[in-house]
Structures are given as structure tokens and as C-alpha cells.
Amino acid sequence: MSDASRDADFCAVRERLEAERASTSAQIGALSRDFTAIVEANALVAIDDEHDPEGSSTAFERAHVASLLARAREHLADLDQALERLENGEYGRCEVCGEPIPTERLEVRPAARTCVRCAEARIR
Predict the structure, then answer these.
(1) In this protein, which residues make up the domain named Zinc finger DksA/TraR C4-type (predicted)?
(2) Is 98 left (phi over 0), alpha (psi -120 to 50) or beta?
(3) CB-CB contact of 38 with 65 (8 Å)
(4) Looking at the predicted structure, is the pLDDT value of residue 48 above 60?
(5) Which of the 8 DSSP states describes residue 100?
(6) Predicted local confidence at residue 22, as pLDDT
(7) What's the CATH number of domain 3-91, 3.30.450, 1.10.287, 2.10.25, 2.60.40?
(8) Over 90: is that where the pLDDT of 14 sits?
(9) Residues 6+ away with beta carbon under 8 Å from 21
(10) Would you kindly state where each structural domain of the chain is located, as residue ranges?
């Protein structure tokens, strides 16, 4: 692979990671606003989740948004780590076996740290 081709690949990967990072940051902002709105709306009303028919729905909604927010923050951290690996020349290598991660996997999961085989082995 020529230096120009490698540079183009590096730039394309960096752009994809940065675009996904920007999207994830925007999602975190929106979820944070939603969570704050739920908490503030509940603070205005004395809600007894156990006895209020709407309480369980509100508690579920708050927990659901909190879970989505946690996942988005985790994904943002994964993207930051992927950008760091890219800068260090380690991007695209499986952290477990050291083999290259297939391009197709990285296109779907740009922050992937493992190849499919090692990811499947970890799940089992």
C-alpha cells in the first residue's frame, strides 16, 4: 500500500470516528436534557411510585433514559479510545489475538477492539 493510500485511509477512518463521536455527543446532550426534564417534572409533584398509577411509568421512563445515557457515554469513551489507537498506529488490530480486524467489522463498529472470533469467544 502506498503512503498516499495509507494517508487517505487514515483520514477516512478519522473522519468516520469523528463524525460518529459528534453524533454520539449530540445524543448525550439530548438524553441529558430528557433526563433532566423527567427529574424536574417529577420534582414538581409529590410522587409516591408505589401508590401512584403514573409513578411506575415515570420511574421506568427515568430508568430507561438513564440506561440509554450510560450506553451513549460508554460508546463515546470507546470512540475516544479508537481515535487514540488510530493516532498510535494500533487501530484495526484485535486487542486479544493481534490479528487485523476485518474492514467490514470496522465499518459497522468503528470502535471495535476485537475481531469477530475473539468477540464471540468473550460472549461465551
Answers:
(1) 89-122
(2) left
(3) yes
(4) no
(5) B
(6) 98
(7) 1.10.287
(8) yes
(9) 76, 79, 80, 83
(10) 3-91, 92-124
